[in-house]
Amino acid sequence: MTSTATPHQRVAQSLERQGMMNHLGVRLLSAVVGQVELAVPYSDKVTQQQGGFHGGAIGALADIAAGYAALTVAPEGMEVTTVEYKINFLSNFQGGEIRAIGRVTKAGKRIIVTTAEVVHIDDSGQRSDCAVMQSTLVPVPKTY
User: Fold this and answer.
1) What's this model's pTM, rounded to 2 decimal places?
2) Nearest one of 121, 118, 122, 119 to 133, comparing CA atoms
3) Distances (CA, A) of 140 to 44, 45, 88, 111, 125
4) Is 140's pLDDT higher than 60?
């Protein structure tokens, strides 16, 4: 990738390589410097035993949104990897889709701190809080 890649192009190219995200049906909605929004539709790939969105799917979507927000501020030729995150699940839902908005809180040379908000959007367009997350990521050399 050249240095002329936009944040959206950079994230889209990386997302294409994510087997798990492709399996879950994750879509890139927007990517600008410091912020990325992703969505995943309700399906049997993302549910738990009671039919709601699985916490693992919610956490994965929050993690990838926050990670891609960090990628938009990482130096060219670098990727990012999550060191840790803490997530609070606020409510669970069925149907519709969930969206995660990842934002960079602080971008340093060695660590990048991010947050992610996850919301559920039902079939009528009603938005409800689902989860909040804070994470720490580190830049690592791109190996592909």
Assistant:
1) 0.95
2) 118
3) 34, 30, 27, 10, 38
4) yes
